[in-house]
């Protein structure tokens, strides 16, 4: 699909430089002080020339309205890189690109990435895409974009577990942030995946079908040597021991681990697992915990136990040494006689755990969706 931008925009650019430009789709993003344009091709007969304005924006969103891009495959030639296209792509100001809602043949995606290799793109988001077919191997390694972040949300791949290994050679190796949420294939063919030497953040949140066994398949051993932040929010995890063991097997040593919104259960008598010594911050909020789990790392800087079901204040011997502990939103805080100052502070306050029902609702939908299709 991204090459629909390239191929289409570029041929349009040559053919019709004088199309009228619709005004609204672009706006100034105050936060980053850059123009953001949305080009929406959802209409059954889209006005492709409206894509022109997206050429001059720094942040670009392309919506395909769920259309299939098979027809553009005929025009793709992975070996041909006409110089005029290369020059235009080099001059694009694009830094952030979102491509959403389309059925994309994998060779088209590969050709788009190859073209984007000439751009200054730093952040790519693929959302609600169905990628069909298999991705060809690039002639030249790492000929795609030099991305800082790649976000995938609800992207399905005909290549199933092989997709990551197929996609990887199309990216330069400097990727620092990888988000894969609402995925259906996280069981990677690890022997084909190469290490991500610069990847510091991996976010596998909102994959409620993952669980510990899925986590073992997703965390390819020794492929994430620089990982510092691992987010596993709402990932169907049930035991801390299972997570700890998966990290140990994969040789992943994060500093920050987010396990919030998982229904963790106590494991009396479970064997201990050695947490990575680097681990400084652990998020166990919204985890349905009725007691402080055993086997936590001995020392942490941040431990978030907010919005659980702790009925009594944890004893100091139950907690690790931690400088920044949050116990907000646990039942024992409601029943405890509190000093007047706190009462004033609490009265009329929006309950801090209110977002819980929202998150659970959303997870439920995703769970249903994944349950219906099976998690592979
Ligand atoms: C794109 O346009 C269609 C109508 O053609 C509209 O229903 C849809 O909400 C738009 N999508 C976005 C992301 O703007
Ligand atoms: C996921 O993407 C598909 C298109 O591939 C779309 O039909 C579906 O509605 C999306 N699901 C969600 C939950 O957004
Ligand atoms: C822990 O996770 C919850 C929910 O995902 C989030 O609201 C909270 O800010 C996180 N806590 C820390 C210390 O990052
Ligand atoms: C505790 O950690 C949270 C999340 O990392 C941070 O926002 C907060 O400022 C920290 N508080 C203290 C007192 O260090």
Give a topology summary.
Layout: H1 3-15, E1 26-29, E2 34-40, E3 59-68, H2 83-91, E4 96-105, H3 106-116, E5 123-132, E6 149-157, H4 163-167, E7 177-181, E8 201-203, H5 211-218, E9 229-231, H6 240-250, E10 256-258, E11 281-283, E12 299-304, E13 321-326, H7 331-335, H8 340-346, H9 355-373
Parallel strand pairs: 2-3, 3-4, 4-5, 5-6, 6-7, 7-8, 8-9, 9-10, 10-11, 11-12, 12-13
Antiparallel strand pairs: 1-2
One 2-acetamido-2-deoxy-beta-D-glucopyranose is lined by residues 302, 324.
Question: Which labels suit this protein?
Answer:
single chain, about 375 residues, alpha/beta, Leucine-rich repeat, LRR (right-handed beta-alpha superhelix), 13 strands, elongated, disordered C terminus, binds 2-acetamido-2-deoxy-beta-D-glucopyranose
Describe the structure.
It is a single chain. The protein has one domain: Leucine-rich repeat, LRR (right-handed beta-alpha superhelix), CATH 3.80.10. It has nine helices and 13 strands. Helix 5 links the parallel strand 8 and strand 9. Helix 1 packs across helix 3 and helix 5 runs parallel beside helix 6. The C terminus is likely disordered. Bound molecules: 2-acetamido-2-deoxy-beta-D-glucopyranose (4 copies). One 2-acetamido-2-deoxy-beta-D-glucopyranose binds next to loops.
Distance between the terminal alpha carbons, to the nearest Å?
A: 25 Å
Instruction: Please give the share of residues in helix.
Output: 10-25%
Order of helices and strands: HEEEHEHEEHEEHEHEEEEHHH
Give the overall shape, derived from the CA principal axes. Answer: elongated
CATH architecture: Alpha-Beta Horseshoe
Counted by DSSP, the helix tally is 9
Within the largest sheet, what's the order of strands? 1-2-3-4-5-6-7-8-9-10-11-12-13
Mean pLDDT across residues: 84
Strand proportion:
15-25%
Q: Which CATH class is shown?
A: Alpha Beta
State the total count of DSSP E strands.
13
Which value, in Å, is the CA radius of gyration?
A: 24 Å
Tally the structural domains: 1
Helix vs. strand class: alpha/beta
Ligands present: 2-acetamido-2-deoxy-beta-D-glucopyranose
CATH superfamily: Ribonuclease Inhibitor
CATH topology, anyone? Leucine-rich repeat, LRR (right-handed beta-alpha superhelix)
